[in-house]
Design goal:
The chain is an alpha+beta fold. 44% of the residues lie in helices and 35% in strands. It has two domains: 35 residues; 44 residues, no CATH class. A three-stranded antiparallel β-sheet has the order 1-2-3.
């Protein structure tokens, strides 16, 4: 598994961009996806925000939590297998 630094270096090298530009792109992606309820990236996959509800054990207080889910595209699935 790549670290954040290794991922940034790999993307920058593969695309011919700077590490700063790659870092800024990833930061923007992290900010944009939750603000818009998700995103679909062609040939990569679909990110969605999913609300989960439940109760806290012991107190029985209800809570709501948002989580990020990812569904890979068929292109990514073929590349992995």
């Amino acid at each position: 598994m790549l670290t954040n630094k290794e991922l940034i270096n790999a993307i920058a090298d593969a695309t011919g961009t700077t590490k700063v530009a790659t870092t800024n792109f990833l930061k923007a992606l992290v900010a944009i996806i939750p603000a818009n309820g998700g995103a679909s990236i062609t040939d990569f996959g679909k990110f969605t925000i999913k609300e989960r509800t439940g109760t806290i054990p012991g107190t029985n207080k209800p809570y709501k939590s948002n989580g990020l889910t990812f569904k890979q595209s068929s292109v990514v699935k073929k590349a992995i297998n």
